[in-house]
Each structure stands twice: as C-alpha cells, then as structure tokens.
Protein: Amidohydrolase
Organism: Nocardioides oleivorans
Amino acid sequence: MYTKDGENYFIVDAHIALWDARPENIKNLQGKQFIDCFYDYHANLSPESEKWSYEEYLYQGGERLMKDLFTDGYVDHAIFQPAHLGEFYNNGFGQTEEAFALTQANPDKLTYNHNFDPRNGEAGLDQLRADAERFGLKGVKLYTAEWHGDSRGWKLDDPMAYRYFELCRELGIKNIHIHKGPTIRPLDRDAFDVADVDHVATDFTDLNFVIEHVGLPRLEDFCWIATQEPNVHGGLAVAMPFIHTRPRYFAQIMGELMYWIGEDRIQFSSDYALWTPRWLIEQFVDFQIPDDMTEYAPLTTEAKKKVLGLNAAKMYDIEVPAELRLPDADEPETGPRQPEAADLATV
C-alpha cells in the first residue's frame, strides 16, 4: 500500500521475475549479451540512487526480492512473468522452482505465471497441461522472439499457437501476457512486432491479452489494435522508467494509452529486477501531463489508482479492501475516448 496526500493506492506489480544470469548458468555468448543489455537498460534509465552493481544484478534471490517489493517497495501483490530462454541459459533465465516456492510460502503476496512455446509441438501441449495443474495457472508469459533451434521467433497466429490458446481456454488460463515491442540483444525486433495481436485477440475474445511494454516503439500500432479489441490490455513494463529520464516521452505514452484504451486497461509493473518498484510508484503518483501537452487530458487520482493496482487485481481476482475499490469508467468498449480532451476544447 502506498499513501500520499491522504490517498491510498493498492499496488499490484504485474510483471516481475526472479532470474539467474550468473556465469555458471550462462550457456553461450548470447546469454552474456542478453543480461548485459538488460543491465544497460537498468543503469541508463534508473536514478543514480537506484543503480545496482553489475554483480548484484546477475541474481537477486528470494529474500532480496521480498524486501525490494514488499518491505521497501509498497507492493501488495506481484505476478511472476518468467522468460525461459533455454537456448541461452543452462537452467533457463527465469527460475521456476525458486519463484514457485516463494508463491507457495506467500500466496497472499505472489502469483506464479509460467510460459510455453508452440514450437514444442504435441509434447509441449502435454507439458502445459501438467504445468497448469501443478502451478494452478491463471496466466502465462509468452516470448515470441525466443530462439528455438534454428528458429528465431514465432507468431501468435501460427496454427500450432492456436492449439495452445485453445488449451489455455480449456484449462482456465485466461491471462496471456506477451512481450511485444522492445528487443533485447541478440533477439530480433521484428519477432516482437505487435501485428499478430490483432488476429488472435479477435479469435479468442474470452482470453485477456496483456501486451507488455505496450509495443514500444510501435506504440501507435498497439493503440490502433487495442482500441478495437476490448480484450487487449497494456502493460507498462519498460515504459515506466522513462518517467525519470524522459518525462515528456512518458507523458506521451500515458496520454496516448488513456486516449485509445482508457484507464481500465492499463497495468503498472516495475519489471523487477530490471527496476525496483519504490521509486517508480512514488514518481507516478506525483506525475502529471505537462500543461503544454494540451492534446492529452490530465491524469486523475482515480486513473492512477486503477493503473497502479486495481486493474490487475480485477483481472487476477486479488482481494482489494472494500474502501479502495473503484467502479469501471463509463467509457465505450471500443474506439477512442476522452472526447473532452484539450485539443478539441481549444478549437
């Protein structure tokens, strides 16, 4: 819980990871390139006081994660979104067993999502059934640019991917988080293109598609897709730290998202351990669209409360104290919103 100026904010960090990029787990040059690229993003977008050393960035462990999120970070609940990256790391990048054990020890604070790769074919479908039963999955995290043998990516509308989405539907896995947008060395940018979201969201209207990183740098493509698909949501991982280094760019991102998809379909995330949640939450609550960016409406306290936790809590059935709940906005299901926004008002 975060409190500022008499307002209470229920916080759900909707995208976190517990990774291991220590030298003994790195399989090849690509594994080293990946974590080095992560660290450069961390170092270049964090305030000086929040920077970690390279060595402590390689692995945090459960004890530090709990402290950074729940003791120091105001977070009420967090959701693991693990990336496998088995071509780059001996034991995978996201640490399944350690993360799942934390959720079992702290079920009121943590939810574990897992992953799948349709290139694993029929065997992967069997594995997804087993994973859903073991982990009690409500969601998965997909990485369409992941390498797999000679393949350097897959698409959401591939025929075998549809078999997996049909199985998700059958197993009650409703929340499909997808990394779309920013690439990480050595992965290919085009394999993270948002274009295939449109097709699958139309065909699986009973699933929620949370597009992590809101498609950056293809924000406009994401917005045009998401505004017409009520089951497409925006995850702010990687977008959030621009609040510090490029606040006008962050204002543009938030302004466009609020205009195209509205306050009920945007989710906060620190992308821990890329960044820690404390400073992001503090700066977001204090943040406002600059006065001269008249094409965007101001961010209301109610909208910030929804983004910081209420939207993800609703999607995952996380209990929120009654006094902190808010009703959905009275907005259209599809198409742009905020017609009262300032551009029109100044004509």
Q: What stands out?
A: The longest strand covers residues 12-16. The chain is about 40% helix and 10% strand. The mean pLDDT is 95.
